[in-house]
Write a structure and sequence with these properties.
The structure holds 2 protein chains of 2 kinds. By secondary structure, chain A is α+β, with helices and mostly antiparallel strands. Chain A contains 11 helices and 9 strands. The radius of gyration of chain B is 12 Å and the shape is globular. The chains are: A alpha+beta, B mainly alpha. At the A-B interface, α7, α9 and α11 of A face α1 and α2 of B. Chain A: Keywords: FAD, Flavoprotein, Oxidoreductase. Chain A: This is Acyl-CoA dehydrogenase.
């Protein structure tokens, strides 16, 4: 991990679009069907600055502004949601690590992550606990300068290949975040295959059995795990997932626009039929609205306005629902051909539904939005 | 920004974020049950943006910043020690 602290130039959305079209889209069917993102693609993404989007320049990252970050995630989501979501995970680890990590942790990990040498993962969800993170059951004990973990985590994105896990646990009833390296004795990784969508995200179940790491691996103070570190990560994840959902909806629209122009029924292209126009019009309007909500959230985030948190919730809620609706319309418009395995629309339909679940389900968003407005 | 201006900014932020109509200087927001799960990251954003301060980890312990007065003390302490960033 001998990474020079050299700032990669910030990737512009146009450059990311070229990268996605030349390197991600041609491999999308393969990645979906083989259920993995090739390691080489992470190296290529690093060369494009995509693994360091949430890493400060000082640590070798690109640390783009929120408008650019949103545009990049839209391009990634337009290409393949699994790749977009992998980048979300990078952000969900790097953002809180940059904010709450010690200098030693930042020096050690951030440059290596930005360089694509270390793949990170965030481990919050457990077999028995999902949305209610204050009830996490993984136990941490502090003893002789070590943190000893016992418990299990499930549905951990990139878990199959991650080199570093940001793990959330409970220490004397208080939330903690701990860095655990792959290969640490007591950590067992069990691949989870067969996910409906985001199939290339290489999910895993993690089991910790007296898994011991130095106390210096704590990220933030004891008690900060849930209220500070996890919320910081989830907030970041919600923003990029929202933007990725816009990209997915855009892909649905583009495929549908093209297909309904090529396919003829009753003597004219499908898109000359009014009911088809209605569906396309809905997709256009909803996608544009979702993009604007993301842009509004991005502007507030860039300004550091506390209202950004709620606006991001609203953006993710709407954008993920838009993706599901757009994918539903796209599949309907493509008919039988869209239902065939290997057709991009079939994959988009499966991927879209996952966007409504990750980084907080739509229902949790409804509750959060209601609470923040004290309804 | 003087003491009264800081207090006004803090009170405005807390009433807005916590969606409460009124908050006295010594009201304990934890005891009033007003704090929601996103409050802490909103608070960090607010203080760092409004007062151009870089908060330290030890500043962010909820037990020490549960009233308007607590927050004003924290902000003034940072301003006096010159821990602001550009």
């Amino acid at each position: 991990m001998n990474t020079p602290l050299k700032a990669t130039s910030a990737p512009a959305a146009e450059a990311v679009r070229r990268f996605v079209e030349s390197r991600v889209m041609p491999l999308a069917v393969q990645m979906d069907q083989e259920q993995e993102i090739p390691r080489i693609l992470f190296t290529e993404m690093a060369a494009e600055g995509l693994t360091g989007l949430a890493v400060p320049v000082k640590y070798g990252g690109t640390a783009v502004d929120y408008a650019t970050l949103g545009a990049i995630h839209e391009e990634l989501g337009r290409g393949l949601a699994s790749v977009q979501n992998a980048c979300t995970v990078f952000g969900m680890v790097c953002k809180p690590l940059s904010r709450f990590g010690s200098e030693a942790q930042k020096d050690k990990w951030l440059p290596a992550i930005a360089a694509g040498e270390v793949i990170p993962a965030i481990a919050i969800t457990e077999p028995g606990v999902g949305s209610d993170i204050s009830k996490l059951e993984t136990e941490a004990v502090q003893e002789d300068g070590q943190i000893i973990l016992n418990g299990s985590k499930k549905y951990i994105t990139l878990g199959q290949i991650a080199d570093l896990f940001l793990v959330f646990a409970r220490l004397n009833g208080r939330g903690v975040a701990v860095l655990v390296e792959r290969g640490t004795p007591g950590l067992r990784i069990n691949p989870l295959r067969g996910l409906m969508g985001l199939r290339a995200n290489m999910l895993a179940e993690l089991t910790f059995e007296n898994c011991s790491v130095p106390v210096e691996n704590l990220v933030g103070k004891i008690g900060f795990g849930f209220t500070h570190v996890a919320n910081y990560a989830l907030d970041e994840g919600r923003y990029t997932t929202a933007c990725g959902s816009v990209g997915l909806a855009q892909a649905c629209l583009e495929h549908s626009f093209h297909y309904t122009g090529e396919r003829f029924q009753f003597g004219e292209p499908l898109r000359k039929h009014q009911l088809v126009q209605k569906m396309l019009s809905e997709m256009i309007t909803e996608t544009k609205a979702a993009r604007e909500l993301c842009a509004a959230a991005g502007r507030l985030r860039e300004q550091g306005d506390p209202a950004a948190i709620t606006e991001t919730l609203v953006a993710k809620y709407h954008a993920s629902k838009t993706a599901v609706h757009a994918a539903d319309h796209a599949l309907q418009l493509h008919g039988a051909s869209g239902c065939m395995n290997g057709n991009p629309v079939e994959r988009l339909y499966r991927d879209a539904k996952i966007m409504e679940i990750i980084e907080g389900t739509s229902q949790m968003h409804e509750l959060q939005i209601a609470r923040t407005f004290r309804l | 920004m003087n003491h009264e201006e800081i207090k006004q900014q803090v009170t405005e932020f807390l009433t807005r974020s916590l969606r409460t109509k009124e908050l006295k200087d010594d009201d304990n927001i934890l005891e009033l049950g007003l704090v929601h799960s996103l409050f802490m990251i909103q608070l960090i954003m607010f203080i760092e943006k409004t007062f151009h301060l870089e908060l330290e980890e030890e500043d962010l312990d909820m037990d020490n910043i549960k009233t308007v007065n607590d927050l004003v003390v924290l902000i003034e302490r940072h301003q006096q020690t010159g821990a602001a960033f550009q």
